[in-house]
Amino acid sequence: MTGIYIHVPFCLRKCPYCDFYSVLFTEELMQKYTDAVCRNILALKPKAIEADSVYFGGGTPSLLPPEQAEKILECIASSVKLADPEITMEANPSSISLEKLRGYRRAGVNRLSLGVQSLIDDELKALGRLHDAYQAREAAIAAHRAGFENISCDIMLGVPGQTEETLDITAERITALPVKHISAYMLKIEEGTPFDTAQMGALADDDERMCALYLRLCETLAKKGFEHYEISNFALPGARSRHNLKYWRLMPYIGIGPGAHSDFEGKRTACRRELSEFLESKVQKNVLIEENIDRAEELVMLSLRLSDGLSLGELEKLRGREPVRRLKNRAVQLEAQKLVSIEKTAEDEKIKLTERGFLVSNAVIVYLLDC
Amino acid sequence: MADMEKIRNFCIIAHIDHGKSTLADRILELTETVALRDMEDRLLDNMDIERERGITIKARAVRLSYKADDGEEYIFNLIDTPGHVDFNYEVSRSLAACEGALLVVDASQGIEAQTLANTYLALEHDLELLPVLNKIDLPSADPERVAAEIENVIGIPAMDAPRVSAKAGINIKEALERIVTDIPAPKGDPNAPFQALIFDSVYDRYKGVIIYVRVMQGTLRTGQSIKLMASGAVFQTTEVGYMGASDLVPIGELSAGEVGYIAASIKYIGDTRVGDTVTREDMPCAEPLAGYKKVNPMVFSGIYPADGAKYPDLRDALDKLALNDASLSFEPETSTALGFGFRCGFLGLLHMEIIQERLEREYALDLITTAPSVIYRITYTDGRTVMIDNPSNYPDPALIASAEEPFVKADIFTPPEYVGNIMDLCQDRRGVFKNMEYLDENRVDLHYELPLNEIVYDFFDALKSRTKGYASFDYELSGYRPSKLVKLDVLLNGDVVDALSFIVHTDKAYARGRRICEKLKENIPRQLFEIPVQAAIGGKVIARETVKAMRKDVLAKCYGGDITRKKKLLEKQKEGKKRMRTLGTVEVPQEAFMAVLKLDED
Hints:
- The complex is a heterodimer of chains A (about 375) and B (about 600).
- With about 375 residues, chain A is an alpha/beta fold.
- Chain A has helices spanning about 25-40, 65-80, 100-105, 120-125, 135-145, 165-175, 200-205, 205-225, 240-250, 275-280, 295-305, 310-320, 320-335, 355-360, 360-370; strands spanning about 1-10, 10, 25, 50-60, 80-90, 110-115, 150-155, 180-185, 225-230, 235, 255, 260-265, 265-270, 285-290, 310, 340-345, 350-355.
- In chain A, strands 9-10-8-7-6-5-4-1-11 form a 9-stranded mixed beta sheet, sandwiched between helices. A 3-stranded antiparallel beta sheet of chain A has the order 12-13-14, with no helix packed on it. In chain A, strands 15-17-16 form a 3-stranded antiparallel beta sheet.
- In chain A, strand 9 and strand 10 (about 235) form a beta hairpin.
- Chain B has about 600 residues and is α+β, with helices and mostly antiparallel strands.
- An 8-stranded antiparallel beta sheet of chain B has the order 10-9-15-6-7-14-11-12.
- The chains are: A alpha/beta (about 375), B alpha+beta (about 600).
- Chains A and B meet through strand 1, strand 8, helix 8, strand 12 and helix 11 of A and helix 13 of B.
């Protein structure tokens, strides 16, 4: 089953840590944008695609008026075979209202991902966010009232001023809301963003602090019944993000909008990060990123991010017996360091990262692949 | 045949930076040997490294013709010598090819360590010394003081020495006239059996090895067979001639008093050792010229390609360098840590640095070198004696009856204010103070005996940093002395890393072991495992550090299915790994191997 990602490249203002593609929002551009998205979706029709997830990401997708979201979703329904889809919209607590949320719900959106980041006002201010803690909680409550059963919140780790105690408060407050899913991202300083300063760099590079915050959150959320199913993602049973799982499970997805990535028909491509070009083209111009992809390497790299781990049986099908044997030998060494666990079932064997393993997952992956 | 009375064979002796090459260039220019438009700065030093460092590595010679004030045309043979102590033997052979030497001294700095060493060498060869005071155009020049210093320290008249500026072209003519009047013409019977001294050789792709000679007696014509007396090898000459400024000029005949070259389709430069005597096979001389010796390397180091796959490239590069450098020795060596490489022998530190630099620059090789070692003399309990140049071959201490290490006599010239610093340094390097001479109120000559292994590490750098670059240093081997030596091993994660082992004096072992562990800790990046870094003598650990396990290396976000960043990061990390050496489970970057070579830095 394919996933469809719609990149909405508009923001009211740019967050100082973000380097994703976005431009300043105007209603006129948004209208043109919706038309361009629809053209691209209609062009998919001959491919007879079967999809079970749609994801509006950004940017700030909640700047999209509900009628336009509806128009896009109608287009999708007419061009793609949709099977009980998960339809997610990312939203900023500052750009939604109950009415708007009801509109999205009516349009078919059934999952809301709120960019909460923190429920401590000082921390939100430090991040340059447009909302405060009160607005964020109100947004979650309003979404629930509007009919969203499946609400996710983002939490930022490593925010200036954040401590394990304030993180606990944020976690307590979020889990007290009708929220089933939490994504926790570590603050990372992107080159050229306003946060790219020596002081912020030092903060983001303070590994001890970042690790302590991460492990603390893992612990707190586990107590609240959240499963740590991916490095940065936690969900109550049954609430894992179907769309995001496609990325980690090497399933196909189609990205529409400037800067959106696709893994479709065996190729990884990305739409050029140029809004005017996107608006004016009949079909978006994709740049080829990779073909003849080494899927075995991707499988190791991506599936190890999941608590379900890397299936050695699956890897063996892609790469053969001997390399898998070597990789397993390395995994045994890592198991002794408590960075991975190796679990054997009747028909398969799986390598899973521990929480400490998650924290050094890049090095673990390189170590496992380097044989 | 050239008129012997009109030949002047001379060399130039100078300390680094005192203007030897610039003066040589001016002489070339004034004798119109090179058209002005062909002049490139520093004509005689034609290797990049020589130009950059302002040093001469290889001896070179050039024939000039000079019309003197007496109306006669003279042939000048200028033999440029490497000034550095590493090439002492080559210098002595070049000097043996001359009747005189220009002693170039910087008129503001005065005599330096190398000046003195080479001057004594010239006096040993009975050369006529012609002092020249250079750089008189500098505001700080004090030719009177420096002339007095030369008279004082060296004991030759210098008050009437030409005062020149090679850079500004002042008074060069006067220096040339003095070469004619002061330096004696060569002697030798052109009809006697042929006898010529080899003072250098170079490899030419088409002509084979070309030997540079000074003919002492007799005559050689193209086509005649020559015999190299040390090896007994016989070759038929294909070309003889003299060295023009930019080309070799064939003249068909070389005779007594002349300096020139011989080409004889010689394949291996090793056959043409500097200092050997060339004679004619049909009319051999009775005795070879005195003073031939085979020069032996003093300093050894393992050289490995950073990328193991480049081993054949390294071998080819060494082969090529050795074509022009008979004193470079190398043989294959295998290290468990570094793989395949070569054990290389050098005349000294500068020689080692130059070879490493040429390998990296001219052959684009990325190298890992091991700590330089000297040759130790070990006597076993059963009375056998062995020479050890590689720590890996150091015997079990239980089998050693006694150990000896080489010492050098060192001369350190310095302004008096740094004497204290230098004494501290020499003390720290197990130096034995001999005496101290005041050359004048501004300069002191310190005499020390130092173990060679204490100066092969980073003595030059340490000396420079402790004297703000003012001290100069020279040394010569003085012999072996009994010593308390141990082999120090370095262990990573419990395994000995052979490439990091070295031999050290017992008293220095603890300090050096600690320092090495610290340096390795700084230079080995955190890995998935905690890595103990230990220094040990025999089985006994004397120092320990720990590289802690890495805490965080994770890319949290993968936005909108963009996994390209993650892939790029993975590629970068894999690429980074290629520059690492895997020792057991430990990844060691190249820098870590280099860092332990510079322990004195902070």
